[in-house]
Design a protein that fits this description.
By secondary structure, the chain is α+β, with helices and mostly antiparallel strands. Strands 7, 8, 9, 10, 11, 14, 15, 16, 17, 21 and 22 form an eleven-stranded antiparallel beta sheet that branches. α5 (332-345) runs parallel beside α7. It is globular, with a radius of gyration of 25 Å. The structure holds calcium ion.
Length: 665
């Protein structure tokens, strides 16, 4: 460490000397390698010609020989700000760092207890005028995270970041799994962007996005046999805007800020914060296989809890009338039906969706809340976030925007035993809107309320930062199965894609497990489900959100509609997990995933393909174990349970029919 400091200070005095002479610092390159605790994952951070950059990959070790497998090519770093241009003419002032341990509990995600280490290295650089910036790199096993820290600059204590040079460069031949960012103020009632665009699988790199606005996080890149990289961001709070990736140009994707038109054109596209302050973390999960991506905890490892939970929040299963019965069900009698359904299923929650203020009214809502208390079911209540940023008409409106009104509303909910809110129709990724998310979460905690966001941005580390945060839509979710047959035709694809991508970095409130064949109230019209019954059961394991609003209706309790074993499974399936293991799969084609709740493992093997899948995998966690084995029969249409005992390797060997599944528990 001493050598580095001495070199750095010699450099610094050299630069000072050249500055005094009024000439630019001479070109010199310096690369520092940051290695993960297991010595496999690396990031090389470089300063050359006054510009910071990095590359990243993993090392292969064979005997005494090691070789680098580079996955991210030399990519730019730096910020454009109103204090200084931190992208060029930079000189290294000092480096530092240490081994950082992160140990924490997290009840809302894929792993309940995390204990990991990261190698930290900080690089403090200086502009010609003496403005300082530190890039903080953390390299863990299979994960790289970095952010920019800005100290006070003399008396300057405030900064506006207008853009970033930060990028991610991939070689020719890379393919992508990306979801386009939409144009602002388009779509239904001008509610976009809301992270509801389709992912295109295995697309060639540099393919233009659908709207020319780049891509939303997370972004998955595939480099053939070399491996996979998942790019995302975390640690976003009200002190920054949400970012996405630009269009790809020559393999380079850079951090892009919100579009001017978001939030009805209101608010800046940049970010403003007080000094000292930091940007969110840019994260990369990289490995030769998909396991480290499915299992990554990097979104939570590098962030901190921002406040103490006011209440012992718990996850659970919820009924949700709106998803199949739609708007017409937001009436008193239908809500009674779904509260009773939650009670009959032994589920914890019941979601009362949009439209209640007009169709039910506050007085009768209080009667529903009393019924919930009587039945031991906790209500979640829907709110429209607007506001002045879109035309979404559903009520209750204008209750979540003003802090004065919001607190009054939350007090009312709290007094009637309501345990959660679902807030819909946000306005994009501007800092304005990110502040609103944070204010809603923070106020809700004061009234013991958990929060689900819908029509919204991607959560970025929020499970740990905000302990009453439960889930976000930010995906083309189950409502689309009702709206349009195309999404039923694509259901298998989506279900086997998101566990590798959208759902790896944050809770995904999909609202799945449809057990009717037709998606209308009477099961005789509307769209038609294509995937099998056991496939639907498997999504309850594959999709992770600590509160799951499942799409079951009272009809599913009728054995002529739904076999009893399926409802038995849904009565006991958990929604919170102690451990998650990737077993096998390929995004959009098939997925084998295992999750543990307490001492009990649940395995879903989903085949999205239009032909059978001959599967043979090992499930060491189920070696020599007796399990209940669910499948759809050889024709994919005869769902049944079977008792089974796995061999000493835990072999799961099955021919899974097209758009069908095997579930073990
Ligand atoms: Ca939606």
């Amino acid at each position: 460490m001493k050598t580095i400091t001495r070199t750095a200070s010699r450099k610094a005095s050299f630069i000072l000397f050249t500055l005094l002479l009024g000439i630019a610092p001479a070109a010199w390159a310096q690369t520092t390698r940051v290695l993960s605790p297991d010595g496999i994952t690396y990031a090389d951070v470089r300063l050359e010609d006054g510009k910071l950059s990095y590359s990243a990959g993993y090392r292969t070790v064979a005997g005494r020989d090691t070789a680098d497998v580079q996955l991210v090519q030399d990519s730019p770093l730096g910020l454009y700000t109103n204090v200084a241009d931190f992208t060029r003419h930079l000189a290294l002032v000092e480096t530092g760092g240490k081994r950082v341990r992160c140990e924490y509990d997290l009840w809302q995600s894929k792993q309940s207890h995390v204990d990991k280490e990261y190698e930290q290295r900080t690089f403090t650089v200086k502009t010609p005028k003496g403005h300082l910036m530190t890039v903080d790199f953390r390299v863990g096993n299979h994960n790289v995270a970095y952010r920019y820290d800005i100290p006070m600059q003399g008396e300057t204590a405030a900064i506006v970041v207008t853009g970033e040079a930060t990028g991610f460069r991939f070689p020719k031949g890379t393919t992508t799994f990306l979801s386009s960012q939409s144009d602002p103020m388009i779509g239904w009632k001008r509610t976009k962007p809301s992270y509801e665009e389709e992912y295109a699988p295995d697309e060639p790199i540099n393919t233009p996005s659908r709207y020319g606005q780049g891509y939303t996080f997370p972004c998955l890149f595939h480099e053939g046999d070399k491996g996979w990289v998942l790019v995302s961001e975390t640690g976003l709070d009200g002190r920054y805007c949400g970012s996405h990736l630009s269009e790809g140009v020559d393999g380079l994707y850079t951090i892009a800020f919100p579009m001017e038109g978001e939030n009805n054109g209101f608010g800046s596209t940049g970010a403003q914060f007080g000094l000292p302050g930091s940007t969110p973390w840019r994260t990369l999960t990289l490995a030769p296989t998909l396991g480290p991506i499915v299992e990554t905890t990097v979104p939570w490892d590098v962030v901190e809890q921002l406040y103490e939970p006011n209440f012992r929040y718990t996850g659970g299963r919820s009924t949700w009338s709106w998803i199949i019965w739609q708007d017409a069900s937001i009436v008193y009698d239908d809500q009674v039906t779904f509260i009773n359904l939650a009670h009959d299923l032994g589920w914890e929650y019941c979601l009362i969706d949009g439209g209640w203020e007009t169709n039910i009214g506050r007085e009768r809502m209080e009667k529903l809340f009393s019924l919930c208390q009587e039945k031991g079911v906790h209500p979640f209540v829907w709110y429209n976030s607007n506001g002045g940023w879109n035309d979404a008409p559903q009520c209750a409106k204008q209750r979540m925007y003003s802090p004065v009104v919001r607190k009054k509303e939350m007090k009312w909910l709290h007094e009637h035993g309501v345990k959660g809110i679902k807030v819909d129709f946000f306005a994009g990724d501007k800092q304005e809107t990110i502040k609103l998310y944070e204010q809603i979460l923070s106020d809700a905690n004061d009234y013991d309320l958990q929060v689900i966001f819908h029509g919204c941005t991607l959560p970025r580390g929020w499970e740990r930062m905000y302990p009453n945060y439960v889930g976000s839509e930010a995906v083309l979710a189950s409502e689309n199965l009702v709206f349009n047959q195309h999404f039923d035709d694509m259901e298998g694809f989506s279900a086997t894609l998101h566990p590798f991508c959208r759902n790896t970095v944050g809770a995904m409130e999909f609202g799945g497990t449809v057990l009717q064949r037709r998606l209308n109230r009477t099961n005789n019209g509307g769209t038609t489900r294509r995937v099998s019954d056991v496939f639907e059961l498997g999504t309850a394991i594959a999709f992770q959100s600590a509160v799951q609003n499942f799409a079951l209706t009272p009809m599913n309790l009728d054995e002529r509609v739904t076999p009893k074993f399926e409802i038995d499974f849904m009565r006991q399936v958990p929604t919170t997990w102690d451990e998650t293991r990737f077993i096998d799969g390929y995004p959009g084609r098939y997925l084998v995933i295992a999750r543990r709740h307490a001492n009990h493992w649940y395995v879903a093997a989903l085949n999205a393909q239009h032909e059978p899948l001959a599967l043979s995998v090992e499930l060491p966690m189920l070696a020599n174990q007796q399990v209940t084995w669910l499948d759809d029969g050889a024709d994919g249409k005869s769902p049944a349970p079977h008792p089974a005992t796995l061999d000493k390797r835990g072999t799961l060997k099955a021919e899974i029919p097209a758009e069908s599944a095997v579930v073990l528990y």
